[in-house]
Write a structure and sequence with these properties.
This protein is α/β, with parallel strands linked by helices and about 230 residues long. It has a single domain, classed as Rossmann fold (3-Layer(aba) Sandwich), CATH 3.40.50. The protein is built from five helices and eleven strands. The radius of gyration is 17 Å and the shape is globular. The two termini are about 25 Å apart.
Amino acid sequence: MCDLGGDDILAIYSYGISRNDQWAADVDKALDAVSPDASIHEYDCTVEKSPLPEGTAVFHHECVNGFPFQKSPGPRGNVTHHLVENGHDSAPDCSLILKMDVEGGEFGAFASMDARTMQKFAQIVIEFHGLTPEADFDSESYRKWDIIRKIKGAGFDIVHVHENDCGDVYIDDQAVFFGSVPEATFVQTACIPGQIKNVDANSNCFVYDDALVHSNCGHAQNTAKICFDCPH
């Protein structure tokens, strides 16, 4: 996450929570000093209630469109519609934060989201699923990378990436890492004064919690130096 240093975050949207939404709880705590009235909206059709203490979040028993039906046949909706339902369709740009971990449904969700909706979010944190190196591209891989380019085309830069080692991790002959399940933080450049270079060079950006880079599945140690923005 990046510390935007502002006081105008209206809401946190967390898609895919299962039995743990520590991310939303941590972000909410971090915003307490600058945006104490920011609300949390959780979306997940695979569980019946929020894992957070009662009254902390507004829970919606609904998945985002694109979420695999084999995971759950529950109700679905798109992000734009959810913003309308929650009164955030007229929210100013840079006033929302989004996290999405929906087991491959992220591609369908962003395929149906236009740039104006994306630009309401100051930061977008996504766990991508099923990416392959450029050498293994097929039509499905091209479609997935097009979604990433779409997010960047809406005015976002990638400021941090690390690999969830539950997926495949590749390394090429130049020692460049690549993961099939990268977790990436996008920041809308218009929301932060100054030029974003990368997570190491920009003093406004930081890994919010060291727990984000621990080993998810007990395999190889995660690395933040993986190639995520290579294919063009």
